[in-house]
Write a structure and sequence with these properties.
This protein has helices at about 40-55, 90-95, 105-115, 160-165, 165-170, 175-195, 230-240, and strands spanning about 1-10, 10-20, 25, 30-35, 60-65, 70, 70-75, 100-105, 125-130, 135-140, 145, 155, 160, 200-205, 220-225. With about 250 residues, it is of the alpha/beta class.
Length: about 250
């Protein structure tokens, strides 16, 4: 089954056809900078352009940085506030010309890791943390996704963790890897306290550099880097669309 996967991020929007039988990308991803402001019309146009880039006419999945309920956007932290209440499924289906599934972006990354990556066949509670412009989190219990898990109230040293322990904070504050790990560790300890995971998988762009900071992390749960790294969102978005007509 070949499905177009699209990952909407705060920095860029990327997509590629995915073989959902094994999670492999069938082409080099098409990446386009996320527009500012990231309005429904602007992002929809990029989704259309990515579909056209691959001459795509089949089912597609979109990972989106918000709480998604029955295809409708419920929150808008990293996109324009006008997204709240938008039927994202209908909007993106209009642009791609085929059936579309929309899922929270961190949940999408989690689907990829649990199906084909670092979480495959792992029992118990598994948490996937995506470290990029912000922090994303997904939770699986005995292999089943618990959708739209978010802890917006978690703070690190008096600031929102999403701002203080993210890849953006790493770059903007010119942090050493040890200093960054200290911030991330504080966040992970709070996640551990709330969820008690058996395994934590670190993904997102910063996970590419896991050798530089993972040794400084002190949480009790086992911690491993994501297998798919930055491609997890694309793969997971495609997996979310399995079962659609033609998929």
């Amino acid at each position: 089954m070949h499905i177009l996967g699209i990952d909407v991020g705060a920095t860029d929007i990327s997509g590629a056809p995915v073989d959902t039988a094994d999670g492999s990308l069938l082409a080099e991803p098409c990446e386009i900078e996320t527009p500012d402001p990231a309005t429904p019309e602007a992002i929809a146009a990029i989704v259309r352009d990515i579909a056209r880039n691959f001459a795509w006419h089949g089912p597609a999945g979109v990972g989106f940085p918000a709480v998604i309920a029955e295809g409708t956007v419920q929150t808008a932290v990293n996109v324009d506030k006008s997204w709240v209440g938008v039927d994202a499924v209908a909007l993106f289906a209009e642009q791609t010309g085929g059936p579309v599934a929309v899922i929270n972006d961190a949940d999408a990354a989690g689907l990829a890791e649990m199906a084909f990556g670092a979480g495959r066949d792992r029992p118990g509670k598994v948490v996937i943390i995506t470290i990029g412009t912000g922090l994303g989190i997904s939770l699986f219990d005995e292999g089943q996704l618990v959708p739209n898990v978010e802890f917006p109230d978690i703070e690190v040293r008096g600031e929102k963790a999403d701002q203080h322990a993210s890849g953006h904070a790493l770059k903007e504050n010119n942090l050493s890897w040890e200093a960054f790990a200290s911030r991330l560790d504080e966040y992970l300890h709070q996640v551990q306290e709330r969820v008690q995971p058996d395994l934590i998988i670190l993904g997102g762009g910063v996970s590419e550099e896991h050798d530089n900071f993972m040794e400084y992390l002190t949480v009790d749960a086992e911690i491993v880097p994501a297998s798919f790294r930055n491609a997890a969102g694309i793969v997971g978005a495609a997996l979310a669309a399995r079962g659609l007509d033609g998929g």
